[in-house]
Hints:
The protein is an alpha/beta fold and 709 residues long. Strand 13 (385-388), helix 17 and strand 14 (413-416) form a beta-alpha-beta unit. Bound molecules: (S)-3-Hydroxyhexanoyl-CoA.
Amino acid sequence: xxxxxxxxxxxxxxxxxxxxxxxxxxxxxxxxxxxxxxxxxxxxxxxxxxxxxxxxxxxxxxxxxxxxxxxxxxxxxxxxxxxxxxxxxxxxxxxxxxxxxxxxxxxxxxxxxxxxxxxxxxxxxxxxxxxxxxxxxxxxxxxxxxxxxxxxxxxxxxxxxxxxxxxxxxxxxxxxxxxxxxxxxxxxxxxxxxxxxxxxxxxxxxxxxxxxxxxxxxxxxxxxxxxxxxxxxxxxxxxxxxxxxxxxxxxxxxxxxxxxxxxxxxxxxxxxxxxxxxxxxxxxxxxxxxxxxxxxxxxxxxxxxxxxxxxxxxxxxxxxxxxxxxxxxxxxxxxxxxxxxxxxxxxxxxxxxxxxxxxxxxxxxxxxxxxxxxxxxxxxxxxxxxxxxxxxxxxxxxxxxxxxxxxxxxxxxxxxxxxxxxxxxxxxxxxxxxxxxxxxxxxxxxxxxxxxxxxxxxxxxxxxxxxxxxxxxxxxxxxxxxxxxxxxxxxxxxxxxxxxxxxxxxxxxxxxxxxxxxxxxxxxxxxxxxxxxxxxxxxxxxxxxxxxxxxxxxxxxxxxxxxxxxxxxxxxxxxxxxxxxxxxxxxxxxxxxxxxxxxxxxxxxxxxxxxxxxxxxxxxxxxxxxxxxxxxxxxxxxxxxxxxxxxxxxxxxxxxxxxxxxxxxxxxxxxxxxxxxxxxxxxxxxxxxxxxxxxxxxxxxxxxxxxxx
Length: 709
Ligand code: 3H9
C-alpha cells in the first residue's frame, strides 16, 4: 500500500484547534487497506501535532463509512487490521469525535464506537443509518463492535442490533445510547466542528468506550441465554448468529482485551466459513444483475402512469407494487364485477397493513387516489407502460396485445406477465414488437423481490432499460432473461421438480424429500410448495402438454392420481399432505403413500432407500445442469443471474449463494461425475450440459463467467 494511495483516500486539514480527518473512498467509503492505512497515519499526525487539540472524523459523499471493504474478504490480509486501527483511534490522547451522516455500518460504526464522542446527523433526504449488519454476510462485527456496542447501549439491545442486522436512524441511535448527540443537517464537517469546539470549550476529556463497565452483568447474561435459545430456533442453519452471542457473552464475562481476542478468533471462524462466501456472493450478485448490455446503449423512457390488465391475484399484486412506487395505475377488467374484485384484492393488502399498524388510513386513501379502474381499453391510451396479467393462454394474451396495439400511444411500453409463454409470438401480434417485453412478477407480486425481465428478439434497448428502471422504483431485484419455455426460473424448476418426482417413484417418500430439501436450508420442500400453490395449476399444465411430451421420456403419474381425487393442497385440505381443519402445517398422509406404492407397483419399480444427502445430490445436480444450459444458451447472462433468480424467487438458501455458486463450492468435477453416474439409469433426462463439461475440462468454474455483461 503506497503512502500516496492512503493520503488520497484519507485527507487531513487543520481547522482552528481541530484536525479534520475526512475519508474519500467512493462510492461508500469502504475501509479498504488504503483507508485503514490513511486513518492510522492521520491519528499519528494528530498525536504529533501541537496545533491539534481534538480530532474530527467524517466521511465525504453519501456515507460516513459503509464498513469493511467486502471485496477484500477471502483475499490475503493486508495490514493494518481494522481492530488495530480502531484501537489506535481509541488510544488517542486527544478527544476524537465522529460526525456521522448516511451509512455507518459494520466496520464504519466500529470506527465511530472507538471515537470518544459521536454525533449523528438527521435529515429528511439522507439521515444517518447506524448498524452492525455483518450477520447478513455470515460474519460478526470484528473490529470491537461486539465489545464496545454492549458497553454503550446495553447487552440486550446491542445483541439484537447485531442479530437483526438492521440499522438504526440517528434518533433511534441517540435513544439507544449509541451516539451522544443528534442534530438536523446534511453537512457532517460543519456539525462536527461545532460539536468538537463545544467539547473543547468545556474541556471535555478523552472518554474511551473500552473503559465503560457493563451494566447489570447477571441480568445481561440471563438476557443472552434467552436470546441464544430464540436464535437457535430461528436461525435455520446459520453459523454466525450463535457466534455473535458468544462474543457478547465474552464482553460481559471477560476484561476488554480478552473479549477482543475472543471476537477476533470467532470472526476468523466466520470469515473461513462457506456461508460467508455464499452470502457475500449473494450481496454482489444482487447488485450485478442490473448491469446489462442495454444500459450502456439507451436511457429509459419516462414512466409516470401505468395500466394493469387483469385484477386477479397477480394483477392486484402488481398494482400494489406500482402504487407503492408512487405511480398512478389504471386497472382494466372485463366487467364491473371483476373490477370490484380487483379493487378489493388491492385494498385487502392495505387493510392488512392497517390492521398490523404498519399503515394509517389517510396513507391508504392517498395511495388509492392514484388508482382508477375501467372496463374499457380506451382508459389506457395515455399511459406510459402497460402490464398484462390475464389468464395464462397464448391466444388470450395475443388478443389483449392486439387491443393494446390499437389504443396505446406510440412509445408506450407493452409488457406481459406471462410465466412461460413465447413472448416473441405475443410481440408478433402487434405492429410494434420493439415495444413489447416480459415482466415476470412472482406471487405475491407486492412481496416477492424477484422480477424476471424477459427480453424478446425485437425489443428496443430503451424498453429494456425502462423495465430495469421500473424494477428499481418498485424495489425489486431484476434479472434479465431470454425467451424460452419458463425463462430462467420456471424452466430450471420444471427439471429439478422432475428429479424430485423420479426420486419419489424410485423409493423416497414426498415427506423424506421435503425434509431433505428443508435440511439443506430451504423454507419448504417441493411437495409442500405444490400444496401451497395448488396442485391443480401444475395438473392443468401437464394435461395441456401431454400431446407434445416425448413418449420416451419418463413420466411420473403420482401427482395426477392425487389431483384426480380433488386433492389440490392447502385450499382443499388435502394434497401431498393432510391439512386438518384450518391448519397450514401439513401432516403426512398414509393414503398418499399408498398411492405412491401403487404407482411404483404398476411400473414394476422396487423401491430403494435414499439418504437425505443422496436426495440432495440428485435434486441439485438437476438444477445445476439445467442452469448451465440456460447460461450456455444465453437465456441467463451469467451464472450469477441464475443464482439471484433462485435466491430471490425460489427460496434457495441465501447462505449457499445460489445453485451455481453452490456448484462451484462443491466442485464442478463432482457434479459432473454425479450426472454421468445418474445418466446410466436415465440418459434422456440426465443429458449433460456441454458448458459444464467444458468448464471442467478447462479447470474453470461458473464464477469465471461472472464478469459484467
Ligand atoms: C464489516 O464491516 C466487517 C467488520 O465488522 C470487521 C472487519 C475486520 N465493501 O448497495 P449499493 C459497493 S462487513 C465494498 O448499490 P446503496 C456496492 O457493491 C461490512 N463495496 O448502494 C456497489 O458497487 P457497484 C458491513 C461495497 O446506496 C456500491 O458500493 N457493511 C460495500 O443502495 C453501491 O452500493 C455492510 O454490510 C462494502 N462494504 O446502499 C454494508 N458496500 O456500484 C453493505 C457497498 O460496483 N452495504 N459496496 O455495484 C450496504 O448495505 C449498501 O451498499 C449501502 C448503500 C446501504 C451502504
